[in-house]
Amino acid sequence: MLAVDDLAVSYGAVHAVRGLSLTVATGEIVALLGANGAGKSSTLNAVMGLVPAASGRVEFAGQSVSGLAPERIVRLGMTLTPEGRHVFPNLSVDENLALGAATRNERRAIEATRAEVFELFPVLAERRTQLAGTLSGGEQQMLAIGRSLMSVPKLLLLDEPSLGLAPQIVDLIFDLIARLRTRGLTILLVEQSVDRALEIADRGYVLRNGQLAMAGRAGELRASTGVERAYMGLADV
To answer: What are the backbone angles phi and psi of residue 122, rounded to the nearest 5°?
Structure first.
């Protein structure tokens, strides 16, 4: 479904991602792992067209999306739930969800999707008229994911969904991610919690200093000492 080939992302003289290639097959959860500053978020942002790639190619569902605007990529069926949630604090839960469906115009279908989001997140249904800025951190994360689901994506990019959340809320978020896969959603997951990510992922890629350090099946990566070495910035992983 997703193929990234020889991707490079730079911010001025800083090379955030260098020569990265990865794939995500339909129905998979693939984890993108690495220490802070390893290039994970830059990779997702480049895939979504939010930052320009210095070089390389991104294909989604057999079509090149390199250089396309994020809105066009969303219409093709890929969306991003960003790190830090970035809900609109002065808008209600309902209004935030409506923004997630901005690329759609079938009112009945949008309402059906909203009902599905409320089924996944009953607390959002209870708080649908509440301002997003008054929600707890966990509720805001649910809203951010729900907003992404409103575009009915085929591929969901999740950037640090457990960041800053209490352990019991993290459990709920990871249970939800696993449920989304059973509903047919393909997921590329960036996550600092390596063990939790690899518990639900099929495969994983480990970045170190913007470059691929390791790749393999989730079980293989969990058993490897190389993942820890990559997080510590050590070579020869």
So the answer is: -55, -30
